[in-house]
Each structure stands twice: as structure tokens, then as C-alpha cells.
Amino acid sequence: MTENLISLFVNSVFTGNILLAYFLGMCSFIAVSKNINTAVGLGFAVVFVLSVTTPLNWLIYHFLLAPGALDWIGLPGADLSFLKFITFIAVIAAVVQAIEILIDRFSAALYAGLGVFLPLIAVNCAILGVSLFMVERNQTFMESLIFGFGSGVGWMMAIVSMAAIRLKLRYANPPEGLEGYGLTMIVAGLMAMSFMLFSGISTG
Amino acid sequence: MKKNNPILQIFLRPIWGDNPINIQMLGICSALAVTVQLKTALVMALAMTFVVSCSSFIISLMRRQIPNNIRIIVELSVISTFVIITDEFLRAYFYDTSKQLSVFVGLIITNCIVMGRAESFALSNPPHLSFIDGMGNGAGYGLVLVSVAFIRELLGSGKLFGVQVVPESLYAIGYEDAGFMLLAPAAFIIIGLMVWLQKTLTKGRGVNK
Questions:
Q1: Count of structural domains within chain A
Q2: What is the C-alpha to C-alpha distance for residues A28 and A35, in angstroms, rounded to an integer?
Q3: B164: which strand partners?
Q4: Interface touch A181/B84, C-beta < 8 Å
Q5: What ipTM is given for this predicted complex?
Q6: N or C end: fewer C-beta atoms under 10 angstroms in chain B?
């Protein structure tokens, strides 16, 4: 059991990296990776939001939406799973908003660091994607907890290393058309390749 | 047709000069993930075009009624509705393809192209123009998707739309499929190279945003 969870964690951070293997959260990855400090801030915010929303969506899906989930109020035949997209996105938007208000109320320092990134996160595909993967892979509650957290850590690692690489790239001298976005994509490709090499660990 | 026909302009601009993926850098996530095969890419492009044009149309119809501070959630609900319709439709009529696309149909909701068009175009333009703008962006997105998928499927598995096109005789003299093309990194690199190509081409003709 524990072993499974550890392997799931390692898998979601490295080989199944949400960004480099499943391409989720690319937009903010490209846009925010220019500066290392903002990358770290956004990374933490993503870890935080993913660890909260994935288990929360698990609960909502399994007690309200899944086929037969409404058994407990006497509607055994109900299947609301087609509502999952709109429910998940609403949950994510609500959680992000709630976290923003809470942080603003209790920690000015944290708000200064994370506050600006929180609204951006509501429309980050990684957050919705992880919730949808969680449903598709039939995970248990514990697995969804670990999967959410692990994916967040993996995403953060990818964006921080990207920011570090782009810092060095400022001194590079690429062909004119390649500069900026094109080069970032190619670097991301090379990073994805190196992350694939981790696949040895997860099986062992 | 006049040269400066505004409707045509609105339709054509996002296809090349202001392409959502290559120039505006929006909606990259799904572009990379569904391009292993031409078929999934094409279905995805059609789904995207449908969602972006219809939701732009509806949002534009409501643009005077939506209060400014809750507009994001209103936009998201409109978009989600169309995504649910698309998803149910695909599952009813194209079950296999919908299995392959897995979560990526659902992810159209958070695709920056749809939100981006709603925010930057539909909120300030009349419905019919928004619809055309949505179609144009869907087409521009589809064009990139289909070209990436074409390269990846041809080089990666020697097929187009699942039909073998690389002849047996070529394999016989030692040609091998580049399995690398089917993996994640190849998608990044192909898009990177396409951006390079497009930027170099457009620069000379003075086309800009």
C-alpha cells in the first residue's frame, strides 16, 4: 500500500510529469518562466491548489456525480458524470478564490508572494487536467491526494528549472526567428527527454 | 470581393499572421498532446473550432448583460456547456477517438484560446464577427495541429490517417520509423521549429500583429 503510494508519487513527479509528459499547464509555463522568483511563487501556488482541489474533486465526484453515487439519498440510478467538467471548474475557481481571501486575511507576507498568481491558476489546464486524470484512472482517495501533490511538485520543478535555463539563455545568441518562444519550446523538448530517463526509478 | 473586407480579414488573420499557437502562444497544451495521429488531431481541431466559435457567439450576445467582476465565471460556464455537448457527441458517435483524446476534450475549457478570444474579442464585438473570429482561430489552431500530426505520424509510424504510406520496399532497404517522433519531446521540438520557420517567413513581408 505505502509502496504503491510512493511509487505513484515518484511517477507523478518524474516520469509522468504533468507538464513535460502530458503537456498540461503549458501556457503559464511559457509565459511565467522568464524570471526565477515568479516561477517559484507560481510553482508553490500550483502545488497548494492541486493538493487541495484534487482530493476535493474526488469527494465530489464519488459522492455526487459518479454513476450510482446518489444512492445515499435514494437515487440509485442517477448518473451525473457528464456534469464533471462544469463542476470541477467551478470547484477550482471557488477554491482559488477562497484561498486568496484566506491568505489575504491571515498572512500578508504569503499574500504578497502568492496573491497575484492565484487568479491565473483557475484557468491553468494542469489543475483541471489532474482532476480529470484522477477520474479517468479510477484512483482511490489516498491516491488522489498523493497524485495531486506529486503533480504539483513535478510542475513546480519543471517551471523552476526552465526559468533557470532561460536565465542562462539570455547570454546566448540564437538565430533571430528562433529567439524567445521557439527556443523555449526546443529547450522544453530537451527537458522532456531528460525527464523520460527517470522512468527507470519508478518501476524499481 | 473587396480586398479589405473586414469579415474576411477577421477570418484570415488568426490563420497565419496572428496564429493562436505559433504567434500568440495560446492553447499549446492540447496541441502537443493530441498530435501523435492525424485523426485525433483533426477531431480535436473540429471540436475546438465548434467550441470557440459558438461560445464566442453566445458570450458576445450577452456582452452587455455580463457584470464585469463575474465575467470569468460566466464565460467559463458558457464554454463548459459547449464542451459537455462536444464530449457527449464524441462519445456517442466516435467512441474510439474520444477514448484516445481522453481528458483533452475536457481541457478545451481551460484552453487559453477560448478564454482569450472571449476576453479580447467577443466582449467588445458584435455576435456575427465574434463567430467568424472564433472560426478563424479554430482554423488557425487546426492548421498547426494537423501539420504537427502529419509530421509525427508520417515519420513516427509511417502512416497517415492510420493507412500505411511508407512503402514496404523502403523498409526492406533499411528504413526505420523514428519512434522518437511519437514521444513527448518531439512535439515540443517540432512546434519550436515551426515557430522559427513562421517568424522568419513573416518578418520579411512586414506582417505583424
A1: 1
A2: 12
A3: B159
A4: no
A5: 0.72
A6: N
The model's confidence at residue A192, banded by pLDDT at 50, 70 and 90, is confident
Compute how many other C-beta atoms are within 10 angstroms of the C-beta atom of residue A62.
14
Which residues does A contribute to its contact with B (CB < 8 Å)?
Answer: 20-27, 30-31, 82-86, 89-90, 93, 122-125, 127-129, 132-133, 136, 175-178, 181-186, 188-190, 192-193, 196
* Residue B137 to residue B14: CA distance in whole angstroms: 5
- State which H helix or E strand residue B164 sits in: strand B163-164
- Residue B3 belongs to some domain of the structure: no
B160 bridge partner residues: B163
CB B203 within 8 A of CB A177: yes
In a domain? residue B206: no
Query: What does pTM read for this prediction?
Result: 0.78
What domain range is B22 assigned to? 9-201
**What are the grid coordinates assigned to B10, written together?**
477577421
What's the mean pLDDT when you consider all of chain B? 77
B158 within a domain of the structure (yes/no): yes
Q: How far apart are CA A36 and CA A43, in angstroms?
A: 10
Number of domains in chain B: 1
Chain A, nearest residue to B111 by Cα: A125
Angle between helices B38-61 and B127-157 (to 10 degrees): 170
Among candidates B32, B80, B195 on the partner chain, residue whose Cβ is nearest the Cβ of A23: B32
Range of the domain at A51: 2-200
Residues B85-95 pLDDT 10s: 888 888 888 88
A67 CB-contact burial (10 Å; exposed 0-12 / middle 13-18 / buried 19+): exposed
Cell numbers 527527454 label which residue? A193
> Helices A84-106 & B71-93, crossing angle to 10 degrees?
150
Q: How far apart are CA B57 and CA B133, in angstroms?
A: 9
The answer as to whether B161 is a domain residue is: yes
| Residue corresponding to grid cell 453515487 | A69
A45 or A118: which carries more pLDDT confidence?
A: A45
From chain A, pick out residues whose CB is under 8 angstroms from the CB of B117.
none
Give residue B56's pLDDT.
86
pLDDT in tens, B128-158: 888 888 888 888 888 888 888 888 888 877 7
